[in-house]
Specification:
Strand content: under 5%
Number of strands: 0
Shape: globular
Oligomer: single chain
Structural class: mainly alpha
Order of helices and strands: HHHHHHHHHHHHHHHHHH
Largest sheet: none
Number of helices: 18
Radius of gyration: 23 Å
Distance between the termini: 34 Å
């Protein structure tokens, strides 16, 4: 079959697998994005609240039903889903009604949380813009699911395109796509959150880097990197800042260690990265986006449920030390992630110039996690971008194995018949 047919088959297989969990992927923050998307379709605030709450609470009820089905003590008890659904609706409506009555009706999101906290989501229109047409066509439940499948499969296709641009054989490029779908990248991208788009756009930027380094279509590559950075600004502007700064740092580090080729391409990529980082800082300030200190206060006050901290940065850095010590302990206890990173790094060394950019993109995952050092945050979703290192690096690591397997077979003598 043609490579594109294999790509479509992988995407179709992934979509079929996701039918096993249509409901129950939401996090508490998903309500904000869904209500934002509903407002973009023309739904008023109260209707958006009703639809979002019903969807979110139906997901919680589905999870409660599935959990009890496998509870060794209570699996034969009455179904908890109706009770969970009712309690969830009452709790959510109690908070929303109070805030609507207090006049918190501005913006696109439903006021599920204090206005200060909701401001963080008001400046992230990218994911709701992508989600809105799916919700309008298929309704919230199937629209959210379909958007997740499309976004996740798009990330897998970008992984395939990056590897093909790096001259990896088709089987290894398909391996990269499969790894993206089955590793935590695919699981996280299916959640109704920004991470799916962040992963896909970061891979699009890496594809642009590969095009520039290959020298075949450098202008298209630069446009792709710049466009991905601009789109990331609308999805989560901190990721645009991290990616731009890390891409520029990759060029400097590559030149220092003599892994970056001479020429205009790397310099142009560094310029685009610097422009993206500086542009993010300037535009976010001009638009009055929440500052870094506001994000730290949000973290330390439990989403502004407590008074602001007087010395937030001292507490933040103390929490950083505690977090990374505990994170390292857990990783050493179950070192799958560390082993995957090591394998990806070894594979990236086979393409030193591109490997520097791949490592830079992976570093944005650690920077995202460092910006919010919460050890219990929905399956390590903030650090998921670091999984791009094994997604693209492991297929490159397997390249010599594949070539040794293919070349002898091609050169084997033909048996004479007769």
């Amino acid at each position: 079959m043609r490579p594109r047919t294999w790509v479509l088959l992988l995407a179709a297989l992934f979509a079929l697998m996701q039918l096993g969990t249509v409901e129950g992927r939401d996090t508490p923050d998903s309500k904000n994005y869904v209500s934002y998307a509903l407002s973009l379709t023309g739904v008023d605030k109260r209707e958006a609240a009703a639809v979002t709450i019903d969807h979110y609470c139906a997901g919680k009820a589905a999870m409660a039903h599935r959990a009890q089905n496998v509870d060794v003590v209570r699996f034969h008890a009455p179904d908890p889903a109706p009770r969970v659904l009712q309690e969830c609706r009452e709790q959510e409506w109690r908070q929303v009604e109070a805030r609507l009555a207090a006049g918190e009706t501005s913006g696109h999101t439903v006021p599920f949380m204090p206005e200060r906290f909701m401001r963080i989501f008001e400046v992230r229109p990218g994911y709701p813009l992508v989600l809105a047409p799916f919700v309008a066509l298929f309704g919230v439940t199937w629209g959210v699911w379909a958007a997740g499948v499309v976004i996740t499969c798009a990330g897998g296709v970008f992984a395939y395109l990056v590897l093909r641009t790096l001259a990896a054989p088709v089987p290894l490029a398909l391996t990269g796509m499969a790894l993206y779908l089955v590793l935590p990248c695919g699981t996280t991208a299916m959640r109704p959150m920004t991470e799916g788009l962040m992963l896909a756009l970061t891979l699009a930027a890496l594809w642009g880097c590969a095009l520039v380094l290959g020298g075949t279509r450098p202008r298209a590559g630069l446009v792709l990197v710049g466009g991905a950075s601009a789109a990331l600004f609308t999805v989560k502007h901190s990721q645009a800042l991290f990616l731009g700064a890390c891409l520029a740092a990759a060029v400097v580090a590559g030149r220092r260690w003599r892994g970056m080729p001479a020429g205009r391409g790397p310099v142009a990529l560094a310029a685009v990265g610097c422009a993206g980082a500086l542009g993010t800082v300037l535009v976010s300030r001009l638009l009055g986006y929440p500052s870094v200190s506001e994000s730290v206060q949000d973290l330390l006050t439990g989403h502004f449920a407590r008074p602001d901290r007087e010395e937030p940065w001292a507490e933040f850095f103390q929490l950083q030390g505690n977090f990374w010590m505990e994170w390292a302990r857990r990783q050493l206890w179950e070192p799958v992630f560390l082993a995957a990173l090591a394998a990806g790094a070894l594979g990236a060394r086979r393409r030193p110039a591109f490997g520097a950019f791949l490592a830079a993109a992976a570093c944005t995952g650690f920077l995202n996690q460092a910006g919010h050092p919460d050890i219990n945050i929905w399956g390590d979703r903030l650090i998921t971008l670091a999984w791009l290192l094994p997604v693209l690096g492991v297929p490159l690591l397997l390249e010599p194995v594949l070539r040794r397997a293919v070349v002898p077979a091609q050169g084997a003598p033909v048996e004479q018949v007769g």
